Protein backbone atom coordinates (compact mmCIF):
# COMPACT_ATOMS: atom_id res chain seq x y z
CA UNK A 1 0.00 0.00 0.00
CA UNK A 2 1.43 3.34 -0.98
CA UNK A 3 1.25 6.39 1.24
CA UNK A 4 -1.32 7.88 -1.14
CA UNK A 5 -3.53 4.81 -0.77
CA UNK A 6 -3.12 4.91 2.99
CA UNK A 7 -4.11 8.57 3.03
CA UNK A 8 -7.19 7.90 0.86
CA UNK A 9 -8.21 5.05 3.17
CA UNK A 10 -7.78 7.25 6.23
CA UNK A 11 -9.73 10.09 4.62
CA UNK A 12 -12.55 7.70 3.67
CA UNK A 13 -12.78 6.30 7.20
CA UNK A 14 -12.84 9.82 8.68
CA UNK A 15 -15.60 10.79 6.24
CA UNK A 16 -17.60 7.69 7.19
CA UNK A 17 -17.16 8.44 10.90
CA UNK A 18 -18.25 12.05 10.38
CA UNK A 19 -21.33 10.82 8.52
CA UNK A 20 -22.24 8.50 11.40
CA UNK A 21 -21.65 11.25 13.98
CA UNK A 22 -23.81 13.65 11.97
CA UNK A 23 -26.65 11.13 11.70
CA UNK A 24 -26.39 10.36 15.43
CA UNK A 25 -26.50 14.04 16.36
CA UNK A 26 -29.47 14.66 14.06
CA UNK A 27 -31.38 11.74 15.63
CA UNK A 28 -30.48 12.99 19.12
CA UNK A 29 -31.68 16.50 18.29
CA UNK A 30 -34.91 15.09 16.84
CA UNK A 31 -35.51 13.09 20.02
CA UNK A 32 -35.05 16.23 22.14
CA UNK A 33 -37.53 18.14 19.98
CA UNK A 34 -40.01 15.27 20.28
CA UNK A 35 -39.74 15.47 24.06
CA UNK A 36 -40.08 19.24 24.14
CA UNK A 37 -43.09 19.33 21.83
CA UNK A 38 -45.13 16.62 23.52
Give a short account of the largest sheet.
Answer: none
What is the count of DSSP helices, taking H or I runs of 4+ residues? 1
Report the portion of residues in β strands.
under 5%
Report the end-to-end length measured between terminal Cα atoms.
Answer: 54 Å
Q: Kindly provide the radius of gyration, computed on alpha-carbon positions and rounded to a whole number of angstroms.
A: 16 Å
The best one-word shape is rod-shaped
| SSE series | H
Could you report the average pLDDT, rounded to the nearest whole number? 95
Helix content: over 70%
Instruction: Give the class from helix and strand content and strand pairing.
Output: mainly alpha
By DSSP, the count of extended strands is 0
Spans of 5+ residues with little confidence (pLDDT < 50)? none
Give an account of the 3D structure.
It is built from 1 helix and no strands. It is an all-alpha fold. The longest helix has 34 residues, at 3-36. The protein is rod-shaped, with a radius of gyration of 16 Å. The mean pLDDT is 95.
Amino acid sequence: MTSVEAFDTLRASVAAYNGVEHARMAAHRQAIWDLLLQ
